[in-house]
TrEMBL record:
Organism the protein comes from: Azotobacter chroococcum
The name this protein goes by in its record: Argininosuccinate lyase
Superkingdom: Bacteria
Entry keyword Lipid biosynthesis: no
Lineage: Bacteria, Pseudomonadati, Pseudomonadota, Gammaproteobacteria, Pseudomonadales
UniProt EC number: 4.3.2.1
Amino acid sequence: MSAEKTNQSWGGRFSEPVDAFVARFTASVDFDKRLYRHDIMGSIAHATMLEQAGVLSIAERDAIIDGLTQIQAEIEAGQFDWRVDLEDVHMNIEARLTDRIGITGKKLHTGRSRNDQVATDIRLWLRDEIDAILAEITRLQQGLLAQAEQHAEVIMPGFTHLQTAQPVSFGHHLLAWFEMLSRDHERLVDCRKRVNRMPLGSAALAGTTYPIQREITCRLLGFEAIGGNSLDGVSDRDFAIEFCAAASLAMMHLSRFSEELVLWTSAQFNFIELPDRFCTGSSIMPQKKNPDVPELVRGKSGRVFGALTGLLTLMKGQPLAYNKDNQEDKEPLFDAADTLRDSLRAFADMVPAIRPRVEVMREAARRGFSTATDLADYLVRKGLPFRDCHEIVGHAVKYGVQSGKDLAEMSLDELRQFSDQITDDVFAVLTLEGSVNARNHIGGTAPAQVRAAVARGKALLAAR
Ligand code: ARG
């Protein structure tokens, strides 16, 4: 049997080489090479610990660290020859280390297994991704706060059932997205704590006979805690699933936000302008300017929900401990993180550039009987029971539909047909400003409250 054809890392007990297709089928290097930096980081920490534990000499440790550092440079210079026959990122780097430094390279794997190695790498990688994603969420939230502050007084129709409901401040509307993103941020910060626990030292599944000192690797790698059970450490991917769940919620929020931007840029709404750099044209219809960025984000949400479902399914049938199924965790996880990060980036770039068409929004709010509730509340203040007021205003609206007039456009006499409790102080409540200013409590749409919410938002971001 030719030795070159059987993987040297585990070929000892094999009497025939792996089938060429099976080698490709079982290999993960095409996608897991992305973990190289974290793999090398983990290996350097492991070698450092092995020296302190008396397993490696200082010279051996230094040769390993030096070799790994040079391999990292080779990879980053695009000079590394990734070999599918070496299966994955771990064995590619280890084989190259042995090429470079000789027999000492073979000592690196003492007291560990690819099972704890890969679990460690993914956690280190995901921790960095979460940090980058958190930074993008904050950048997007800063953009929302700036817009909300600038447009606290801009009035648009608020909707329920996509029908005009009540006037709201455009700033207030934007702060709803801010609030959702704050929860997304919280969820990811919380998820990060459980990502940041160290499986290294679990070895294949049962731990190792070498006198490893896990406190050392834990400290060197910046983990918050050491995983307390070796079987669990090498097998569960709940941290990745949890990330995909948090990422799915964030994408769901961005998808809803996208849907509004798509509606608002349409000729039918015409509420906002998106700068050309976030749009594309049509190859056939010269007049078109399509809101591609929000449409794509809305579409991409499906990839992340798919990753969540995929990982749950991947995990649910696995007995303890490590199973090769887990190699399938990477592509969905990478894709979910990339998709969320890119979508946030696109939004963080785009949101500060949104320009509201103030007059169009205002006109839409004015035309839709959006102050009908204010008229009912006014009559309640005059002493009528709310249900009767609702009925009275219903008649007024019906008259408005027939006569083509909004409530604020009716004369006092016209309004008094519906109730003699109406006097000329009614017009103050029928204006859009009167309506929003009246909702002056925490979480309400009065511009003063919007400014207070912006101040709270700024304090929240400053404390991160
Ligand atoms: N490429 C593998 C993975 O991603 C690494 C661990 C493989 N361990 C093993 N014993 N086959 O999960």
